[in-house]
Amino acid sequence: MERKPEIPSLEDLLKKMETTREEAKTAMERTKKTMKRQYDKRTRQSQSLKTGEQVWLEARNIQTN
């Protein structure tokens, strides 16, 4: 007796595609949170300065003629 190859129904295929898409979406969201957390470890809030405040200026990148 010859066996015919099984062909998944359209509904099964659509379910599998939706499940795969949801898993990918969840993985991307998790990765996004991890990347943000790692970035935030090395960054800090910038200081807010007001007009008239005195600050130290590093002249390393300032060219003079």
Verbal overview:
- 49% of the residues lie in helices and 0% in strands.
- With 65 residues, it is mainly alpha-helical.
- It has a domain at 11-39.
- The chain starts with 9 loop residues before the first helix and ends in a 24-residue tail after the last helix.
Question: In short, what is this structure?
Answer:
With 65 residues, the protein is mainly alpha-helical. Helices cover 49% and strands 0% of the residues. It is built from 1 helix and no strands.
Low-confidence stretches: none
Main sheet properties:
none
Report the order of strands and helices.
H
Number of E-type strands: 0
| Cα-atom radius of gyration | 29 Å
Topology overview:
Blueprint: H1 10-41
Task: Give me some keywords for this one.
65 residues; mainly alpha; rod-shaped; single chain; 1 helix
